[in-house]
Amino acid sequence: MKGAAYVKRLELLFGAYKHMNAFMSCGVQEFRIISADEKRYRAEFEVTKDMVNPIGSLHGGCSATLLDVGCAASAFIRGKVVLSINQEVTVVSGAKLGDTVYMDIELIRLGKTQCYTRGEIVKKADQKMVAFGTCTYTVPPTRVLPESAHSLISQLTQIQ
């Protein structure tokens, strides 16, 4: 599969997330997929008022959620639903309301029962790292997934 197909799959997935609920949309409606290949992708977005803490900086919990949703997407676009079992996130600097940041996501390993990923959020203007982390997921048996997950996976895997 070529990079363009991964980009299309990510755009379809994040488009579907917009309509699920406020938690799953958590800023992904702002994502612009910059590049994608079989192991990595980059998404760019602006920090919005829904993402900041009372002092106007990207909230650490929002950074963790963005990394979790972003890392899980690296498995989902390959036809696997994953569920979080461990996440470690470190916030090292701030990003202010209106800043453009990018998120680099790497799929380290996607196996039959577990998935390992890592990601970074970086300010575009000065290349300062905002947050980084790793996410570990379990891959549940497909028989326990709801029909909506099967339907979305089917749509994603049709994009070649």
UniProtKB/TrEMBL annotation:
Ranges in coiled-coil conformation: none
Any one GO molecular-function label of the UniProt entry: fatty acyl-CoA hydrolase activity
Location of the Thioesterase domain: 56-128
A Pfam family reported for this protein in Swiss-Prot or TrEMBL: 4HBT
Cited InterPro entries: ACOT13, HotDog_dom_sf, PAAI_dom, Thioestr_dom
Family (UniProt): Belongs to the thioesterase PaaI family.
Protein name: Thioesterase domain-containing protein
Organism: Mesorhabditis spiculigera
